[in-house]
Amino acid sequence: QVQLVESGGGLVRAGGSLRLSCAASGRTFSTYAMGWFRQVSGKEREFVAAINRSGGITYYADSVKGRFTISRDNAKNTVYLQMNSLKPEDTAVYYCAAAITSLWEGVRTLVREYDYWGQGIQVTVSS
Do β-strands 116-117 and 18-24 pair in parallel, antiparallel, or remain unpaired? Predict the structure, then answer.
C-alpha cells in the first residue's frame, strides 16, 4: 500500500506558475504509474496528466497540453506537476494517484484505473 501527500498548491494570478509535488510513502514507488487529476465542486474528477513507472512515457489532457509538465523522481518517491500559463479554468482541487502496473505497461488515464489517491490540494487561479 502507498500513501500520497500533495503539496505546492495555492493562489496564483492568471499567467502564473505553480509546481505541485506528490510524495509517496513506501519503498515500491517505482512500481506505480502515476497520474494527476483535478475536480471542481459539483463536477466529475477529470484527468490532467500521467506518467509511467520509469518516467519515459507521459500523457496529457488536451486542455493542459503545452502548459503542464508531469515528471517523477523515483529516488525521492515523488511525482511533480509543473503548471505554467495558468488560466482561471485551471482552478480546482488537484489529486495525485498511483496505479499498480506491470513493467511493460504505459500510462493510465481513467479514475477507475488508479488504486491509491492523495487527499487533494486546492489550486486557485485569479483573473
Answer: unpaired
Mark 54-90 as b/e (b = at least 16 C-beta within 10 Å): eeeebbbbeebeeebbbebeeeebbbbbebeebeeeb
pLDDT per residue as tens digits for the range 70-97: 999 999 999 999 999 999 999 999 999 9
Q: Report how far apart, in Å, the C-alpha atoms of 4 and of each of 53, 57, 84, 104, 110 are.
A: 16, 21, 23, 23, 18
Alpha carbons 61 and 52: distance in angstroms, whole number: 15
pLDDT above 70 covers a percentage of the chain that reads 100
d(CA 39, CA 13): 19
